[in-house]
Amino acid sequence: MLSGKYIVVGAIADDPLALDIAHYMRQETEISDILSYKQFANSEFCPRFISNEEDLEHIGYGLKDKTIIIVSSCSGQHTRNARAMRNFLVARAAKDNGAERVILVEPDLFYSAQDRGPRKEHGRVAFERSVSDYKKFDGQAWSSMLYAQLLKTAGVDAVMTVHNHSVAVQEVFTKLFDGNFFNLSPAELYASYLANHATLTDSTAENQGIVICAPDKGATPFAKAIYENYLRETSGMLLKGTPSLLVMTKERTGERQVAITAADTSPTKLEDIKGREVVVCDDMVRTGGTIVACCKQLKAAGASRVLFVVTHFNSSQEVKENLNDDVVDDIITTDTLPNILNRDMQGRLRKKMLVLKISRWIVNYLRNGILKLDVPEYRPAYTVDISRKNPYWAENQDLRDNL
């Protein structure tokens, strides 16, 4: 039987996030020595937890009393569809061999964009759905609900994700998993990095600090969370100045065009940001168009430097081309999508991109928030991946993961 009560595996053998989480969970056995990722000649995936071939007493119960932690992220060549099927089969293999509990760690939760269907009962959203919104989903499946149901059927008992902004998805997973749905907000990580490690100019004559900016209404709760965490982090610090919160609003003027202005209800106005550094916060980037439009407005209003903080970075060609604009001075993201650690995926953005690696943070929450182990936490809760082409490479030496 495998040693240790808590066992970390991945949906694939070389998932970089799974390997990091296993390391910080103090797992000594390599994942590839725990789980065999077999594939039959007909292409069917058949995972198998490796057992002692001479043990004939625990057949079907080799994982008795164990908690299996499946880490599933988007990296490498496998599609999300293929990874989802692997999640189901690994979870079922765990339960069919006696596992007491199965926890899925999926930082960028699959099918979350398909969070509603063509009928009224297909997903509760935070806005009033129009006929055109229902029509947009006409003929489609309510895929996020199906994904949750299939995970539950496969044997998953709890799901951990990062910064999922869909009200419908949160409701579905919370209900289906009896409250064992953990949606972690990275606001504290960003606030910690900005307050303690980012090279930001400090106070001005008016004691004004940085400006935390929401690029649209949907990003406002996240920007407020970073703002509040930053206030706590800098409480008592000298020369940090008083931060401000700026809320923008957008109006689509075309399929790829948006008009960005400051919201009437924003605590800070555009004319108040002259000479100050602004941190634009969002959960994901798909095209980068909205962010660039927002940053252009900020620079036009006199912002001295604009940082873009985003949790899920989809490194498409369109994103890389849009964000290469000079109005975006720096980008801070996480490795919820581990492909972003690849310098080729960063492209020309490597000169202004910094990645907060979140495996320590996830392990902190896994051990103390879910498993209730009451053990010391890793501090800081993140490490940094940064290209040598980034001018802040040397200044992040103490946080770089490769040291």
Describe the structure.
This protein has 403 residues and is α/β, with parallel strands linked by helices. It contains eleven helices and 15 strands. Strands 10-9-8-11-12-13-14-15 form an eight-stranded mixed sheet, with helices on both faces. α6 crosses α7. The model has no long low-confidence stretch (mean pLDDT 92).
In short:
With 403 residues, the protein is an alpha/beta fold. The chain contains 11 helices and 15 strands. It is globular, with a radius of gyration of 22 Å.
CATH fold-level label of the largest domain: Rossmann fold
Largest β-sheet summary: 8 strands, mixed
Distance between the termini: 35 Å
Strand order of the largest sheet: 10-9-8-11-12-13-14-15
Strand and helix layout:
Blueprint: E1 6-10, H1 16-24, E2 35-39, E3 45-49, E4 67-71, H2 80-95, E5 101-105, H3 131-136, H4 143-154, E6 158-162, H5 167-176, E7 181-184, H6 187-196, E8 208-214, H7 220-234, E9 242-252, E10 258-262, E11 277-285, H8 289-300, E12 305-313, H9 317-323, E13 330-334, H10 343-346, E14 353-357, H11 359-370, E15 383-386
Parallel strand pairs: 1-4, 4-5, 5-6, 6-7, 8-9, 8-11, 11-12, 12-13, 13-14
Antiparallel strand pairs: 2-3, 9-10, 14-15
